Amino acid sequence: MSSVDELLERAHVVSLPLRVPFRGVQVREAILFDASFRWAEWAPFLEYQPEEASRWLCAAVQYGYTPAPELADSWVPVNATIPAVDVREDPDVIGALMQRYPGCTTVKIKVAQKGQQLADDVARVRAVRQWCSQAGIDDPKVRLDANGAWSVPQALEAIAAITAEGPLDYVEQPCATAEELAEVRRRVGVLGGSSEPVRIAADECIRKSADPLTAVTDVIDAGACDVVVLKVPPLGGVERLLSIARAVAPRGVAVTMSSALDTGIGLGAGLEAAARLPEVGSESQAAGLATGSLFVEDLAPRPIVDGRIQAGPLIPDADVLHEFAASGSRKDWWFERLKEAYQHL
After folding, report:
1. What pLDDT does residue 219 have?
2. Binding site residue list for Mg(2+)
3. Same domain (yes/no): 58, 111
4. What is the largest CA-CA distance in the chain?
5. Binding-site sequence positions
6. CDD domains, alphabetically (predicted)?
7. 48 is in which domain, residue-wise?
8. Share of the chain above pLDDT 90, in %
9. Which of 108, 110, 141, 331 is labelled catalytic?
10. Alpha helical stretches, state H, the chain
């Protein structure tokens, strides 16, 4: 493994503004490594402690210091992502966001934002459905992501209110614990005129665990989910993620690959994992790997073509890398953070 001194020598700290706030984040900070085989990204969220951040560092080092594999099919279907925007205050915001996802017919919508009400979520989902209808997308797959913010009664109320206007593909992490997810899954039933029950997806209760492989087994054993949402950085790398997907496949649980608000550089690892899911017997479905569209300007844009993005390593644009370089105290803070996380590898 590379020494911490080598990583520091290859590190570029950046600060990228978002088009609209995303779960309270207005500026995304990250370290990019000009590693020996390909550029890699390390961007644990600011509140993460060194031990948790070290898993993200492991993923970045593994990606940057291993050769890119040959992929049987390098084009990955992706979903649009809609932050918890206020559509009543800005009726045009959904159109402005959706236009950045050409060809995408699956939409993940953030809900349960602190300071908002259920009526805000219902209005946001309704606005997305209306935009899709006007754009000729007759049967969009709509996903909700509550990031564990609801109680069981709140989740059931919200799902009932939103499915009254149309079906859902699934609801991601409606509540915080596996026990709560299992209860919601048991009680949600068939809603919204769909012939199938509303699926429940697990995210935080897996990736925030110290042992994600054990956690995913426990979640499935508890009957808590139909889908697991997997992200490369918090799971410690592409190979570790694929090992979890391999364990999930025989259990009849679907896998959705997703981003941790990565830049175009960081998305490379997620796209590689998504393209390799068929190797471990997982059925491909739209991945949440188009988050580059959320940045005012990305370091390495990955164009969406007919709802898909091509996997493969990219090199950051030198001018953009220079323009959004962090310096002074922020650069020093990230370098100290890197040293602390490295001690836990």
Report:
1. 97
2. 145, 172, 203
3. no
4. 58
5. 145, 172, 203
6. OSBS
7. 4-68+318-343
8. 90
9. 110
10. 4-9, 50-64, 93-98, 118-134, 152-163, 178-188, 204-207, 212-221, 232-235, 238-248, 267-276, 318-323, 328-342
